[in-house]
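Notes from hallway chat w/ T.B., transcribed later so I don't forget. T.B. wanted the structure written out for a chain they're using in a teaching module, and asked if we could keep both sequence and structure tokens in one place. Agreed to drop them here.
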Amino acid sequence: MYGKLLFVVGLGAGYLFGTSRGRKDFEKFKRSVSAAWLDPRVQKVAKQATTFAEENIPMGEKVTEAADAATKAARATVGTTASVAGSAATGSTSASGRSTSGGGTGSSTSGAA
């Protein structure tokens, strides 16, 4: 079922972006959506929904804290990876005395298969 849905979505995208008629239809759709979004009544409802969510859903602060923690962890990982890559490029050795230049066969197992 998922494959069929994906196929239909692909056909639609191909029509929209692959034919001049499709591009015209897409531009017309974009203008309609933009006009609807800019309607003052829609903006009023969107603002009410945002205010309601901010007042009644206490998850905002937790999500922000989790995002900050993930960002710090990613930066630490990237920094560690960058320093390992830098030492590999210079051919230095690791704390265990092994070369970090990556010149091995890529297999860490030994013995006959």
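Follow-up for T.B.: The chain is about 75% helix and 0% strand. Might be a good example for the class.
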